[in-house]
């Protein structure tokens, strides 16, 4: 495929299935199905929604476009706001906790030979 045009509102949204997650939704905007070597995903978290702690082999960059959240990375917690971004290397545990308002962010990942996600018992405060 040489190119692909769509509207975010037309891309199916599904619930995030990572253990410890709640009120978190994902849309896969650009994927290998389009011929890309990376994926672009949009996440939406409702107020107090969360994505549980997990780890995976692939790298990701998260760009906050609406709201604010706590991002747990390794053993640290950082607060990110609209306009902030974070790069998380493969093999680094992380999770997201939304604050009081609607949260939206884009997440760009690379495709690795192992795309599995390991769920962790750790909690993101």
Question: Any overview of this molecule?
Answer:
- Pfam families: Cupin_2 (PF07883).
- GO terms for molecular function: metal ion binding.
- This is Cupin domain-containing protein.
- It is a single chain.
- The termini are far apart.
- The chain has one domain: Sandwich (Jelly Rolls), CATH 2.60.120.
- The model has no long low-confidence stretch (mean pLDDT 95).
- With 125 residues, the protein is mainly β.
- Strands 1, 2, 3, 4, 5, 6, 7, 8, 9 and 10 form a 10-stranded antiparallel beta sheet that branches.
- It is globular and about 45 Å long.
Keywords:
single chain, 125 residues, mainly beta, Jelly Rolls, ten-stranded antiparallel beta sheet, 10 strands, 0% helix, RmlC-like_jellyroll, metal-binding, RmlC_Cupin_sf, metal ion binding, Cupin_2
